[in-house]
Amino acid sequence: MKMKSLLITLVTWCFACWAEAAVTTPQTGAYRLTSGRSSSKIMAVNSSGELIVSARKANDFNQLWLVEKKGTTYLLRNIGNGRYVQPQTKLSTKYATDNAKATFYIRKNLEKSGDTYYNISSKSDFSGTSCLHEDASARVVPWSAGDGSAVTGSEWKFEAADDITKDQIKERFDRLTGSTLVEEGKYYRIMSPEYNRALIETVTSRGVTTDETADDLTQYWTLEKQGTGYYIKNAYTGRYLLKQGGVVSTQYRTNTKPNGAFTLSVNNNFPYELRYNIVDNKTIVLHTAATQNYNAVGWYISNGTDNLASVWYFQEVNPSEADIEAAQKEFQALQDAQTNERKYRQMMATFFDDDACTILKSEYRSMDDAALRQAMSELPSTIQEAAVKIKNNSWSKWEKEFRVASYGIYSDPSYWAKQLKMSAYGRQNNPTGIVADKNQVLYVFVGSNVPTGATLKIETSSTTSVFGDYSKTLTKGLNVVVAPADNSHLFVMYTSKNGTDISRYANLDIHIEGGRVNGFFDCTKYNNKDWAQMKADGLFKAPVIDVMGEYIHWHMSTSYVKNNVRDKITEVMAVWDSTAYWELDLMGLLKSDKYPDIYEDIYPRKFNNKMECTTVTSEGSYMYSTSYYTGYNEYSTGNILQYDNVIKGDGTLWGPAHEIGHSNQGAIRIVGTTEVSNNLFSNMVMYRTGKYTTRYWNIQEMQQWMPQKLSWLELYGKNSERETIGLMNRMFFQLYLYYHALGNHPTFYQEVFKALRKSPLVQPTSPAITYAKDDYLKFARVCSQVAGEDLSEYFEYWGFFRPIEKYQVGDYATWLVTATQKDIDDTKAAIKACGKPNGNIIFVEDRVTEEMGRDGKPKRTLESYSVANCRNDMGQYTDFPKHLEASGYIYVVDARGYVTVTSLAKNAVGIKVYDKDGNLAYVSASRKFMLPSYLVSEGGYTLVAAQSDGTDVKMFNKKTDTYYTMNVYRGTNSPVVRYTDGKAESATIPVLKDNDIAVLAEDNAPEQLTTMQNVIAAGNVVHNMVLDNTHPFYAPQDFTAKKLTFNLSYKAGNNAMTLPFAIKQSDLAGDTQIKAFKATEEKDGVNYIVFDDKTDEIGAGVPFLFCNNSKEEGIRSITATDVAMAGKAASIKGEEITLYGSFMPVTLTSGKYLLNGAGTSFDLTADKTDSNAFSIWMEKTTAGRPSAYVIAGSDPTSVKNIATDLQTGKEIYDLQGRKAGNTPGKGIYIVNKKKVVLK
């Protein structure tokens, strides 16, 4: 009656007038909140618990808020529904309330008209759109705080609600939560208000923990009065909560008999709610430990501010007698199964031929169902029914598929995480497809002994958590397992110890009875039709589903998987599998027949765990990675699971690649790169997918940081997270583009990972010091050693070689990093010893020009990382293999330091600027850029054009430098324009070799240049010309060689030649002869080309035949003085053919004629046939196309042999490859792979 009276008083209570309520600084208490947008309206909750503003109403609890100050933070709890305001990050979305506590920050913004206005934010710095805001639609949504100049919808007044008392609020909250005073003999749910979780007994372990509320008798407790205290008894098990005598941080347990009474005392430090202490021993009470999986442990009493999880409230429940009786009967059966486990195991041998209990003994197979059940009457009914099913082979569809299976072994992920310097991969690699509800008994039959060196357990998991609710070690034969929660999925944990070879372990046959078949989907076994059929057959009903790929395991929310993967599940998984495979490949963990000494052949031979991927619901966690799994928020699943999205190969693929990359990055995760080094994998996956360009800042964006001369870590510390990631991504991935994508060192990163696994980075956290020599300097050294190149300038550019002392880095932990000058100098010396310099990798970029993707479309870009935004005109990565020589690089610079490179410039991959001391000071991938101001003021700087082979070409200032122009022809008609100062042994003078020539543009060039070998100077004169006929040659004009040395190479027999100077027979030895073209003729159906045997001289550039009458190839050095040299070869026109000469190789179209390898005839060419330099070719200018022109006097085979070949049955072919039959006509044929002439 008293309780009813209070309730009536509460319901009929009227608020006093609010018009005179004081506006105050918020402390703990009841308030009404009005925003600056509409002072006549009050913040309230609607029927859905969402925040709105509404007109003031009398007696409206929904407009009243209990503000609880907790140190520097606040809880905002609506008195109408008793729930707390939750953070909100989505714009235009109403804030909502929930049972979970959530903290906010409140600060004063401004005063106006005597009122004080405050901002309410989920962030301590009130940044971004983190503040509660009344919008134009009377909703409370996230927005930014006002700037203090005017009152906005983000500013709130707190009006103290003096018209409601603490007792009235307490009555309201107790009514909402069901909190009540305790009485003996009643049943209660004992609730932790701090976490809104109910006290529960774990039946299988007798441990006491807490869980979300449910209609579950393991959450129901009754009180038995004992003196001044109470025994606390579980309604399901009938066991009592045991006292611990004041022990802290130890989980409470139960037993069939109590060991003492608990004192239940009201904690008066909570004025707004009825809260109890469950006292074990003086000041030690029952406490919910969030750090111990919310177990109930002993801890200290709460003072209302600290130890808030040490108080409880009692919520009365009313189970029926029938419910209690059924529950206790169920519990008794459960206990019987556990108690008789060994007995049942021994009995199985009576009935079954195998330990997996899948084959009944013959005498039992012949029984009818009733007789078999009677014979097995001492066994649980579940086992009896399983035996009947096995006897009759009456498995339901899919049942045998999942209840009886052979399970392979998996490696220990924690062991390999340590060995391979990575995060642990998944644990739950062997799903069974069997699901059971709470306290349901399952019977697991193991077909053989567990091999030595392995462990075998069964584990259950009822959520998307990768850590099981319960596990039990299994032995051969029958094992009793009790499900700890509803929808408990069973996983076989068959695990190898340490690093043993997986192949040494046999599969284990396991049979499971009890529970229900839910199924899992194995993409390596089933197809898309199976996916549709299994769904239609009612599988995958549990809230969680397991989908297995070759390398990936989805352990995800069923609804999100089924809604997003309606049909092409194998295709979607193939994309995920490719991502995981490519990352394993980049680490060098796979087997490689091509590179067996580099790849370590670890996965899957020794380490074979799959990457487990789960869905998560936590607010603010989009995607993340941690030990044993990567997590993806449920609202991201549309992007990462829908086929049409993942096949795009864009940001939807970047996310999983990034998170899986976190698991793999350990070996290369230098300090400060937790969110960067993993993007090596993301960018690699994007590249290998072949549809998108990579994702990092371009070199032009990097320019703004170079003048500051920041160290690598200062670069990290002085930028926003996005800027840091954009910059640092580039350092890792440029190495991939250069060495892997371009094939310059295809196993580069595999070797880097291998080296850093063998000798890992050393990174002690603060207060210890991490030395750069053991971290990023070591990474640079290993990269250079693996490449076999001097990458010192590459890492110089990235700030690796700047001293720092105890520089603090915050990157999920705190490091103090020191780089001493000695360590830097030692590292640079070691790197320079690795090989030739190759610092120009700093310019490697894949967004200078548009590139076609694998789908035949131009590659797309992520976010703003586009070709248009790249702003580079040099450095496209596909230009690097061309090894083109920088040409035409001179520049002008104005007084401000703005550099413009002349329009003739081409082929460089970038421009580098060195200061007066020779240090790299600035770089640009654009022909127009602004020098740093300090370089302009200091002067003495030098510009060089960077070439793709790692070398540089000095650039000259067009207005202020003295230089000379040399047009260099390297066997082509396109000159490389080089500039030189002309000084002796100057590095600016181009190297000429292999028939290269250079034409000096200036007549006043110094003698150092005019007398150089192969340089055409004023008057078209070369002082010393050295050539050969094995390399291409091109000269833009005729000239005179004061001295000529020509090294003539020739083979045995006939050689077709063209030389750029006149040659006489008298210049040659007696065993060689020059022959000029004479004519063509046809005899007996054979076409001949005739050369003059009595030729004395051949003119410059004229085609001719050089005959070597010896059987050996040779080389002859021809020397002469004052030789007239032809810049262009000539042609000779006959009656039906024209002979062409060329000093450069020529690619011929079909239908031309070229001397064959034997030197016996000019044969008809196929399309795109290449001629050699200094060679000749022939074109028919009249009708008809004979297959060849035989050189007169060089019959390849005597005609008499053709008859012999016919008699011996050898096959004869014409020159088109067709069989010629037994009586061919006259002509040229192929017999036994040789040409013969039939006259």
What can you tell me about this protein's structure?
With 1239 residues, the protein is α+β, with helices and mostly antiparallel strands. α12 packs across α15, α15 crosses α16 and α20 packs across α21. Helices cover 20% and strands 30% of the residues.
List the defining traits of the structure above.
alpha+beta, 20% helix, 1239 residues, single chain, disordered N terminus, 7-stranded mixed sheet
Tell me roughly what share of residues is in helical segments: 10-25%
> Total strand count, please?
75
Over all CA atoms, what is the radius of gyration?
Answer: 43 Å
Provide mean pLDDT, rounded: 91
- Number of distinct helices: 27
Low-confidence stretches: 1-23, 1195-1208
**Most strands sheet:** 8 strands, mixed
Helix/strand/pairing category? alpha+beta
Approximately how much beta-strand content do the residues carry? 25-35%
Provide a short characterization of the protein structure.
The protein is an alpha+beta fold and 1239 residues long.
